[in-house]
Amino acid sequence: MSAPENIGEVLFSAERIQDRVRELGDTISKDYKGTDPVLICMLRGAAIFTGDLVRSISVPLTLDFMAISNYTSGESSGAVKILKDLEESIEAREVIVVEDIVATGLTLSYLLRSLQARNPASLKVCTLLDRVVARIIDVPLAYRGFELPDVFVVGYGLDFQQHYRNLPFICTLKSETRAPEL
Ligand code: XMP
Ligand code: MG
User: Fold this and answer.
1) Is 102's C-beta closer than 6 angstroms to any atom of ligand 1?
2) Closest ligand to 67 CA?
3) Residue 17, exposed/middle/buried by CB under 10 A (0-12, 13-18, 19+)?
């Protein structure tokens, strides 16, 4: 099955995503007026979202990047590894973590503990998608794009076997059992 043929249902169109990202940017601009926050883009899934989000925020900001290993259901401890750490200190900074999707909350809860230990002035999360039905650990989400039903999705940064990140919309796949023939 070729990649385009494997696209299932479009849950969020490109236009709907762009509208929502602009709304989130406006809200963050109001909430952080007079400050200079650092946005932490969680690689790789949040890269596209972060790129659009920062351009919708009008307050001065800095951007940093972090990559952590994916939590898988086999690792019940929720422990994840930092694959790429921040370039700069977040001590005394207003920090906004930008995520593609929060599901169980295990990845984020580990990450927040690690970041909190670095003594930021504040620490908030902005996630594009929230699969709230999958939550195991309660994590505070200050900003959220869309609530997602219990389905696997790709597009707008989200991948299946590293593909589909470039789709401008978010959709399900017809089959997640084999790699796309590209
Ligand atoms: P937890 O369960 O720790 O997981 O909140 C969040 C991470 O799991 C990945 N994830 C997905 N990636 N489509 C994806 O491309 C999905 O539907 C999906 N659901 C979870 C993602 O890396 C996220 O950071
Ligand atoms: Mg991710």
Assistant:
1) yes
2) 2
3) buried
What is the rounded CA–CA span in Å between residue 71 and residue 78? 6
Peptide bond between residue 22 and the one before it cis (omega within 30 degrees of 0): no
3-state secondary structure of 149: coil
- One digit per residue, the tens of pLDDT, for the chain of length 182 reads 557 889 999 999 999 999 999 999 999 999 999 999 999 999 999 999 999 999 999 999 999 999 998 766 555 555 789 999 999 999 999 999 999 999 999 999 999 999 999 999 999 999 999 999 999 999 999 999 999 999 999 999 999 999 999 999 999 999 876 554 44
For domain 15-150, the CATH architecture is 3-Layer(aba) Sandwich (3.40)
DSSP state of 125: E
Bridge partners, 67 (sequence order):
43, 84
Ligand 1 pocket member 172 (CB < 6 A): no
Which of ligand 1's atoms lies nearest the C-alpha of 45?
A: 22
Ligand number nearest CA of 155 is 1
The residue extents of the domains of the chain are 15-150
Look up the pTM and report it: 0.93
Q: CB of 139 closer than 6 A to ligand 1?
A: no
Tell me if 152 CB under 6 Å of ligand 1.
yes
Ligand nearest to the CA of 45: 2
Record the tokens describing residue 147, joined without a space. Answer: 């609530």
